[in-house]
């Protein structure tokens, strides 16, 4: 073997060793970066799990189930880690949407609390006023008996008030709101139910007296 051939083979061997060393270094760096990314993802998942558990308690929903591994068929760890981060980000977005929905009540979610309460109390008062009209029409004396007056002035307004109060408590309050913080407009509701029934009854008597 000539010296030139030996030198060329030695150079090729050195290049191959350098390339292998560089490839090995890249693999080690990539592996270390992947492990660091996985550890960061685990910490993010742990924080997200605590947040979802707290959110489920606020929304009064069943606790979410964690665990389990879904096989995606990916052979590239970097791509799998990227998809995992995308899934985590999407879960955060959905959690924020659920939290926003939890801040709105089921009943008339776009209305203000006071406007919603006024509407509910007013509808309940209207329903009881219609019942009062029925009692007045069906009265054996064809007029306003004492029992009809008592029911129209006290009993039915009380029923309307408590029915509206319960409806607001169940469907008119955000699920993330505690019972002590709920806005039910109790005084305003009492004024609407009892005052509205009284005015409606006076109006009914005035109309019937003119007939």
Write the layout of secondary structure elements.
Layout: H1 3-58, H2 77-102, H3 113-137, H4 146-171, H5 186-210
Shape, principal axes of CA atoms: rod-shaped
Care to count the β-strands?
0
The average pLDDT is: 79
Class by alpha and beta content: mainly alpha
Q: Please write the string of helix (H) and strand (E) elements.
A: HHHHH
Number of helices: 5
Q: Spans of 5+ residues with little confidence (pLDDT < 50)? A: none
Task: Note down, in words, how this protein is organized.
This protein is mainly α and 211 residues long. Helix content is 75%, strand content 0%. It has five helices and no strands. Helix 1 runs parallel beside helix 2 (77-102) and helix 3 runs antiparallel to helix 4 (146-171). The longest helix is centred in the first third of the chain and has 56 residues, at 3-58. The model has no long low-confidence stretch (mean pLDDT 79).
Question: TL;DR?
Answer:
The protein has two domains: 3-102, no CATH class; 113-210, no CATH class.
Feature tags:
211 residues; 75% helix; 2 domains; rod-shaped; mainly alpha
């Amino acid at each position: 073997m000539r010296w030139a051939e030996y030198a060329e083979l030695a150079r090729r061997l050195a290049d191959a060793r350098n390339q292998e060393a560089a490839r090995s270094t890249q693999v080690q760096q990539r592996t270390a970066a992947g492990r660091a990314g996985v550890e960061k993802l685990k910490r993010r998942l742990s924080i997200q799990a605590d947040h979802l558990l707290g959110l489920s308690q606020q929304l009064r929903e069943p606790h979410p189930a964690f665990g389990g591994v879904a096989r995606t068929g990916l052979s590239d760890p970097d791509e799998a880690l990227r998809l995992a981060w995308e899934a985590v980000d999407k879960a955060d977005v959905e959690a924020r949407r659920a939290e926003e929905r939890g801040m709105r009540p089921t009943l008339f979610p776009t209305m203000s609390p006071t406007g919603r309460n006024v509407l509910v109390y007013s509808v309940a008062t209207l329903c009881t006023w219609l019942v009062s009209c029925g009692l007045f029409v069906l009265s054996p004396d064809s007029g306003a008996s004492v029992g009809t007056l008592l029911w129209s002035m006290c009993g039915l307004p009380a029923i309307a008030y408590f029915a509206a109060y319960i409806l607001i408590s169940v469907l008119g309050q955000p699920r993330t709101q505690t019972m002590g913080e709920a806005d039910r407009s109790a005084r305003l509701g009492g004024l609407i139910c009892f005052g509205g029934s009284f005015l409606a009854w006076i109006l009914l008597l005035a109309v019937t007296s003119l007939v």
